[in-house]
Each structure stands twice: as C-alpha cells, then as structure tokens.
Amino acid sequence: MGIVVTIIMLFGLYVALPLPLSVFKKPQGVGANVIGFALLLGGIWNSFWHGLRYLDYFWGIAALISGFFMILVAIVILKQNGSQSVSSNVVIAAFYKTINPLSIVWITGLLLSFLLYFITLVRLNLGLPIIS
Question: If DSSP codes are grouped into helix, strand and coil, which group holds residue 113?
Fold first, then answer.
C-alpha cells in the first residue's frame, strides 16, 4: 500500500504545485477533482486506518502525519477546482478559508512526506536498511 500512497502523493503534488513542472498540461476540472478525491481517500486511509492503528511505531506516526497533509492538500485542490461537494459543505469551506494562506505549508508537508515514502521504497527495493 505504500507504493499506492506514494503515487497518490505524487499526483497530488503535481496538481497542487503552483509552478509548471513539465511540458504536460496540468489536469483541470474533472481530472483535478479525481486526483483530489484520490488524495483525500488516500489521506483518510493513511491517517485513520494505518496511522491510528500503529501509533507506537515510526511508520504509524509517519502515516498519521502524511495522511493529515494529504487531506489538507486534497481540500485545497478540490476547492481550487470548484468541486461542488467541497464548496457545498459549510464546515469544509470555512476550514479552507483559514488554511488558504498556508497552503504552501501544506504542500511542503506533502512534499516532505512524499520524499520520505519515495526514498524508503527505493532503499527497500535496493536491500538497504530503512527507518523503523
């Protein structure tokens, strides 16, 4: 599941980063919403299923924190692309207004989480020791 979460984080970063990173056009509208919902579901799974179950291990805490950042960036992505399900929810809309100036902090947190997962997966596949 770590590979799936890492790929979801990568797509979320691609949509959320304000700078164009490649020659490919960023997804807008439905494409961005699909990535936003995938990021939201991955964040919920990471935080509430894996993270809360393994709080006594490093990877449980890492899952909780990375899932938190995934959820926050997903809300930013969905709100920026005008998802009706997010804009209709008053609580999430009010929460979004409070984090809007800090969205770069959430994106940086997601980037650091992605790097932790990505480097760990590479080290694991090379047979090198990982953080445990």
Answer: helix
Q: How far is CA 14 from CA 24, 25, 31, 55, 130, in A?
A: 10, 10, 12, 29, 26
Q: Fill in the DSSP letter of residue 17.
A: -
What distance in Å separates the CA atoms of residue 9 and residue 100, rounded to the nearest whole number?
A: 19
| CA–CA separation, 3 and 5 (whole Å) | 6
Higher pLDDT, 1 or 111: 111
Quick check: 77 and 50 in contact, CB under 8 A? Answer: no
Tell me: the pLDDT tens digits for 3-25?
A: 999 999 999 998 887 666 555 66
Q: Count the neighbouring beta carbons within 10 Å of the beta carbon of residue 11.
A: 19
Alpha helices in the chain (DSSP H): 2-16, 30-44, 58-80, 84-87, 90-99, 103-125
pLDDT at res. 27 = 63
Contacts of residue 7, defined as CB under 8 A and 6 or more positions apart, other chains included, come to none
Please give the pLDDT value at position 18: 67
